[in-house]
Amino acid sequence: MTLNKKKIGIFGGTFNPVHYGHLLIAENACDQFELDHVIFLPTGHTPHKAFMGEKMSIHRCHMVEAAIADNPKFSISYREIESTGVNYTYVTLARFHNDYPDCELYFILGADSLFDFDSWRHPEEICKYANILAAVRGNLNADEVDRQIVYLKEKYHSGFYRLNTPNFSVSRELRERIMRGTTIRYMLPPQAEQYIRDHALYREDFA
Question: What is the rounded radius of gyration, in angstroms, for the C-alpha atoms of the chain?
Answer without folding.
Answer: 17
